[in-house]
Fold:
Amino acid sequence: MEHQKITKLEKYWILYDVGNSAFIMLVSTIIPIYFNYLAGNAGISEVDYLAYWGYAASVSTIIVALIGPALGSLADTKDYKMPLFVLSVVVGVMGCGSLSLPNSWIVFLAVFVVAKVGYNASLIFYDSMLVDVTSPDRMDTVSSHGYAWGYIGSCIPFAISLVFVLMYDKIGLTMHNAMGLAFFLNAAWWFFATLPLIRNYRQKHYIDLPKHPVRHSFKRLAGTLKDIRGEKHIFLYLLSFFFFIDGVYTIIEMATAYGSALGLDTSGLLLALLVTQLVAFPCALIFSRLSKKYATDLLIRICIIAYTGIALFAIQLDKQWEFWLLAVLVGMFQGAIQALSRSYFAKIIPVKKSGEYFGIYDICGKGAAFMGTTLVGVVAQVTHVANAGVAVIAVMFIIGFVLFVKAAKLNES
Structure:
């Protein structure tokens, strides 16, 4: 089983990570720089720009946190998961492709929120598909390959986008046109990478179509929330995930905005984050191999400890080379902690309720991101020091670690 090749269906599932990662790479790099450009033209200060960016990310998170569990529960109904997945992908892709249309910074943020909602919603259905496309003993491997190939695959449209964004004046483009090409290219990449999964996925685990699917999904969701309180290992895991993934998502969301607010060179920031992707590819695959020899919970603990160190290092960051070092360190553990968290959860939940449970999982992940980005924004504005907000992230990792250790012990017993 160790040497079994990735199946066609597993490849198609992995390919969606390759597609959507192009968008999240934009969110981490080019989109905040363009927002900074629009905000700068409108006379918005650097500290306020960082805060507004954090608030926009938080709004998109709140929306998905509110609708996610109900949509996830509905997706467990026979033949519902794929249509809901397609709808969310279309919203995300169209939002991404439309980002160059607004000239106002506030309208730009509104379009960004729409695109981000589509992206986040699609992940609820996509993550829950893991139980249908592979077997429990292969979940760590397939999940890790998803993140690994997502990182390296997203570098292709990103590298082309960088040519437009960094050299637009030399190739006869305006800043606006260059951004438009970058947004359209990444939207197209996302869409076409999704098609094989749409054509080949079949929902294996489901509940039969009830008379009133929407009403029934809410009833099931209420029942599941009660059940989770009784299943302490799942409840504690979700609570720990809420805290430790907070730091991961906040670092992803705010990295370029944070570096820009500190006055670091834009070109250097973009190239450093490209290095993150290149480092993340082999490291995610290494952790995939390690998951065959070592317990998944042990590897997750190692990742949380490493991220705590990264957050502490980021507090004093004020030089370009330090940002480069941070980019490499994040790349080493980013894919692993996301992939292993996803597969660990998929293995401890009922397969017929995968959509429902991943809807709740998404609340914990995105709810944490909301808290992290909001706290970074608020603390930065209150203290007028961009570094101060980062200290909160380290605390989240420590709380997450303590809770995860308790959850893993309960799961073993």
The radius of gyration is 20 Å.
